[in-house]
Every structure is written in structure tokens, then in C-alpha cells.
Amino acid sequence: MQGLDPRTSEWNEILRDFGILPPKEEPKDEIEEMVLRLQKEAMVKPYEKMTLAQLKEAEDEFDEEDMRAIEIYRYKKRLQEWKALRKKQKFGELREISGNQYVNEVTNAEKDVSVVIHLYRSSIPMCLLVNQHLSLLARKFPETKFVKAIVNSCIQHYHDNCLPTIFVYKNGQIEGKFIGIIECGGINLKLEELEWKLAEVGAIQTDLEENPKKSIVDVMVSSIRNTSIYDDTNSSNSDNDDTK
Prior knowledge:
Blueprint: H1 9-17, H2 30-42, H3 52-57, H4 64-88, E1 94-96, H5 102-107, E2 114-120, H6 125-140, E3 145-150, H7 151-154, E4 165-170, E5 173-179, H8 180-184, H9 191-200, H10 212-243
Parallel strand pairs: 1-3, 2-3
Antiparallel strand pairs: 2-4, 4-5
């Protein structure tokens, strides 16, 4: 008599008879699996699919046992939301770094986190203004990392004409850059104007609906246009007088 091949189903059946292998599971057809899935879904309490606001509106529809379970569910839900918020809002300040921290803090920052870095000199007034604005924006947009560094610690012999310098990084790539006073917005830079600039390169998600500097530009254009019309009118009247 030849021995049984351990790889055969017959050998497995013998092992099952001795209790060495668990009983063979019968394959379930699609209808049976669908019925089991629907039964499982039916066991889920309706409040487990509701938001906290929906639970508040539907309180009168639940019995005492459900209300006790809902309180526990609410606590867990709030805890989850709080943890998610804390994970997202983990920065919230403009931090000072040195040149030897640049790679770790900026280039190799956490995945999908935008990093705004300001290279500055404290002797340049525009740099101090930018730092003030970035400090406020860091608190407003805590999901974005804001850092500053004295330029000499990062780049030797960097020219003052290139300051302030703002770089925006994400996943190790430069997504935006503003080099020098003009690109950064000028010596009269307003907080909202810098916010708009950073939003345009994807560093933050602003609630501003339009470029705050656009209104200033519109006023200037309108003034120039009105001046031009006035000059043309005066010139035309002068020509008419000469003809007479």
C-alpha cells in the first residue's frame, strides 16, 4: 500500500477526522453573503451613523438605554474629532531655526505639510515687518509650518537686495518664492496682502475672496484714467478756442 501524499485533499480529510485540522468551511454563495451583510448592518444602531448635530435633533426618538449608549458614543466622537484637530493643528507659531536645521525642518518636513521659511536680517526693517506678519499668520493657519532663519546661517554672502526672502516648500519641493522687497509686497506690505500671496502658491487656504491689493490698483488705474480723460478734454477745449 502506497503512503498518502500530504498534499492531497484525502490526507487533509484524515487530519480533520482526528481533529488536527479545523472542519472544512463550506463555500457561501453570493446570496447568503449578502443576507449576512444586511443582517450585520441592521444590527448597527441608527445613532452610530449620525453626526453630533443630528443626534441633538433626534434625542426624543431614543429610549433611556439608547441615550446612555449615545452619551458614550458622543464622548468617543468628540475625542476622535479633538484628536484629528490636534493632529492637523500642530504648529501655530513662527519658530526660529538655524542653518544646520534647514534640511530637517524644511526640505525633509512631514509629508504633505506646507513650510513657509523666511530668510532675514534683523537690520532690515522690511524683514522685521514680514516677521510680524508671519507670526500672526502662523497662529491663523496652524496646519502650516512657519519658520524663520537668519540668512547668514543658511547662505553665506547673501545680498541685502534679495531680502526679505520667503520660500514655500512642500514634500521637499519649492512651491513658491518671493525674493526682495518688491516681490514680497513692498515696504507698506499689509498682513492681508501677504496672506493672499501665500495662498496663491498653496501654502495656506485663505478665506479672503479677492486680492486685497486689487482695490488699491483699481483706484490707481481709475485715477490715471480720469486724469487722462481730463487732460484730453482740456486739450480739446484748447484746440477749439484756438480755432475760434
